[in-house]
């Protein structure tokens, strides 16, 4: 039986507009540029990042790289507050969406610094989708994500590269990162690469075709062990208690 794409899109939009961060809902993926099982293809990151950002990145000066040099405080309480706000509110301003993305990325930046291609891919994916949301809100003059979604539906804006698509994929990225951190807290006896792989299988694998899963798992195979990550962070004693706030 063929997939009813109209119903699938309406389901995706409903998920995006609700801003429901519950575990049961977000069992779908975050990786861009890979065909997903529902037939929707998330556009290539290269076509989403503006030219000036690409040029700066080529010079090692993009905004994301600058953030790596900034203080990465482990503020678990603040991240929990942001995630709860996203979960409970139907109306979220564009600036607030950007704040959530920035704060969450800052929070996990230290932990994910050594995750190589997987980390870089997810980070760029999140910022690309934040750009989609901002551009869509600017185009329609919306003051909130909810208004943007309503406007796009009213005007029959195509799903591809829409603000709705960006919102849904951004939520999926946040869900994957949250699951990585929760796994690290709940399963400290397991190697970090195993915890990240379990998070992928739980959150992203169900959205990708076999090619996509093979590519991502190739990235996962290059994740260093926890001791190497902690050594890089110059921690003599890991302080992961804040992850309890996200469990």
From TrEMBL:
Record-level Gene Ontology MF annotations: ceramide 1-phosphate binding; ceramide 1-phosphate transfer activity
Keywords: Transport
The keyword Cell inner membrane belongs to this UniProt entry's keyword annotation: no
Domain of life: Eukaryota
Entry GO terms, CC: cytosol; membrane
All copies of domain Glycolipid transfer protein, residue ranges: 114-233
One Pfam family linked to the record: GLTP
Record SUPFAM superfamilies: Glycolipid transfer protein, GLTP
InterPro entries, per the entry: GLTP_sf, Glycolipid_transfer_prot_dom
Keyword Membrane (UniProt): no
PANTHER family membership: GLYCOLIPID TRANSFER PROTEIN-RELATED, PLECKSTRIN HOMOLOGY DOMAIN-CONTAINING FAMILY A MEMBER 8
UniProt protein name: Glycolipid transfer protein domain-containing protein
Organism: Compsopogon caeruleus
